[in-house]
């Protein structure tokens, strides 16, 4: 498998590190770790990831859905939401982005593997 670059957007450092370990074990390259929407947009522009694993509830001025919208306006990155929130309003907002996937926390390495494989 050729190594696809993944940008991790997660404001919880423990979950961020867990995702990074899972992705490394699956053979993906981490292009960056961002804790806020503004930081994620900047990293996406600089590193041009293939995938963006995006938490929806981020600290900062913009949430993950608005961050994904901004990233998609300037790149072809495939957005995969990784979140603990799945109420109808969140799902409807997320659908507007046309994400490549949606993973609910808690997640497993297998959840990541399957979603990333299907999103290629």
What would your notes on this structure say?
This protein is an alpha/beta fold and 120 residues long. The chain has one domain: Rossmann fold (3-Layer(aba) Sandwich). It contains 5 helices and 5 strands, in the order E-H-E-H-E-H-E-H-E-H. The protein has helices at 13-26, 37-47, 64-74, 88-95, 109-119; strands at residues 5-9, 29-34, 51-54, 78-83, 101-104. Strands 2-1-3-4-5 form a 5-stranded parallel β-sheet, sandwiched between helices. Strand 3, helix 3 and strand 4 form a beta-alpha-beta unit. The protein is globular, with a radius of gyration of 13 Å. The model has no long low-confidence stretch (mean pLDDT 95).
Quick summary:
The chain is globular and about 35 Å long. It contains five helices and five strands, in the order E-H-E-H-E-H-E-H-E-H.
* Total DSSP helices: 5
- The CATH architecture term is 3-Layer(aba) Sandwich
Give me the Rg, rounded.
13 Å
- What structural class results from the helix and strand content? alpha/beta
* β-sheet strand percentage: 15-25%
Strand order of the largest sheet: 2-1-3-4-5
Give the fraction of residues assigned to helices.
40-55%
Question: Helix-strand pattern, N to C?
Answer: EHEHEHEHEH
The total of beta strands comes to 5
Mean pLDDT across all amino acids = 95
CATH topology group: Rossmann fold
Identify the CATH class.
Answer: Alpha Beta
CATH superfamily: Response regulator
């Amino acid at each position: 498998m050729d190594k696809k670059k993944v940008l991790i957007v997660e404001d919880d450092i423990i979950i961020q590190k867990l995702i990074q370990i899972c992705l490394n074990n699956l053979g993906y390259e981490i292009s960056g770790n961002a804790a806020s929407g503004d930081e994620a947009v900047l990293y996406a522009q600089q590193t041009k990831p293939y995938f963006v694993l995006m938490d929806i509830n981020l600290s900062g001025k913009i949430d993950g859905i608005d961050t994904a919208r901004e990233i998609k306006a300037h790149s072809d990155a495939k957005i995969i939401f990784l979140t603990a929130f799945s109420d109808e309003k969140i799902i409807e907002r997320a659908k507007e982005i046309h994400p490549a996937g949606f993973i609910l926390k808690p997640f497993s390495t297998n959840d990541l593997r399957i979603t990333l494989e299907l999103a290629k």
